[in-house]
Amino acid sequence: MGKSKYYVVWTGKQPGIYATWAECKAQVDGYPGARYKSFESKSAAEAAYAGGAKPYIRSGAARTAKKTAGPRAGAVPKSEIDYNSISVDVGTRGNPGPVEYKGVDTATGEVIFSHGPVAKGTNNLGEFLAIVHALAHIEREGSGKSVYSDSVNAIKWVKQRRVSSTLPRDKSTEEIWTLVDRAVEWLETHPYRTKIMKWETRDWGEIKADYGRK
Fold first, then answer.
1. Any known ligand binding at 150?
2. Contact yes or no for 54/62 (Cβ under 8 A)
3. 85-198 belongs to which CATH class?
4. Is 46 flagged in the annotation as binding?
5. Which end of the chain has less neighbouring CB within 10 Å, N or C?
């Protein structure tokens, strides 16, 4: 999540090289036959763009075979998504590194809350804070919503009311640990009934709160 990537769009609304997934996604979403790929460096992306998509993109026959193969065994259908919920996600640049998180309405994508960036933390600690923030918001509003997160570890920590992170406690991590300690204390003093659920990224795509830093 922390590594910079460059995105080549060979076929899309506006072909070119983009520095963020959000920009790339805007060019390919809903575009028939879109062809695009990420690269680890700008020079690699420039070379790939100049050379064309063929060496990097599977043939149309291969893509068609995948589309007609049917859903994978055990796939969770999108019909099971609970849209009366808040979806949370964390954005980091480096792990550990600066951390921010947000919660959005799963149905509309509207941002309900956000926090950060915090100077130094981890993906899992950020997800943990986001879930607890969502729980506190739901309790305060009395909305009865559920919570989605794509982090198995963070969900487990919330349910256990404790974290198991190896991030050192020092001056550089004081801010994140202060927030985490406060969140743990909230969990210990607030017996919530809100359902916390795992977002099934493999079947449903990226969680609605995704920062697009892939």
1. yes
2. no
3. alpha beta
4. no
5. N
